[in-house]
Amino acid sequence: MKEILVETSARHVHVTQETLEILFGKGHELEVRKMLSQPGQFASTDKVEVIGYNTKDPAGPRPSAKLSILGPVRKANQVEVSFTDARTLGLTAPVRESGDIAGSGKCTLRGPAGSVDLDEGVIVAKRHIHMTPEDAVNFGVKNGEIVTVEVDTGKGRKTLFGDTVIRVSPKFALAMHIDTDECNASSAFGEVYGRIVK
Questions:
Q1: Which of 42, 56, 92, 180 could be disulfide-bonded to 105 (CB atoms 3.0-4.6 Å)?
Q2: Is the domain 127-197 a CATH 2.40.40.20 member?
Q3: Where are the domains of the chain?
Q4: pLDDT tens per residue, range 166-197
């Protein structure tokens, strides 16, 4: 039985270099706090305040939270949250694949040097599996394919995750990514593995 490591991706932010410098000052660069499982990706030492828009009282205080910035910098700004985060922070966040931000939710990013209003970029990341081309052949799947993954931690919460997209690149390492809501629902704490159900 071929198994895939299941990792929980907590809420975080991706920014462009331009946005990073507005938030933290000209010439600012991201510093590595911790390397992540995907090659070249890291959690930085920087956090940014994410401020929501959807409130019952538009004139009242807007909910906010500090989220980690992941590196390296990207070509577009993107805020990834769970549905619980979105409700708490007053954000609109459609389910999207990373990078598909057209018409997605808006927010304000605030750092120690300035702030940036995002007209789009807030999403709930569609659950997905990172694979190399060799992994895809091994599992008999292709890029963009939608599969179902069974996660059974033995804690009484066996879960079938449908609508899981396969993402294939030679730059990837084999791992499935779910958000914190999905992790809690399936008790996927610690080192957890899943398998594709045909």
A1: 92
A2: yes
A3: 10-125, 127-197
A4: 999 999 999 999 999 999 999 999 999 999 99
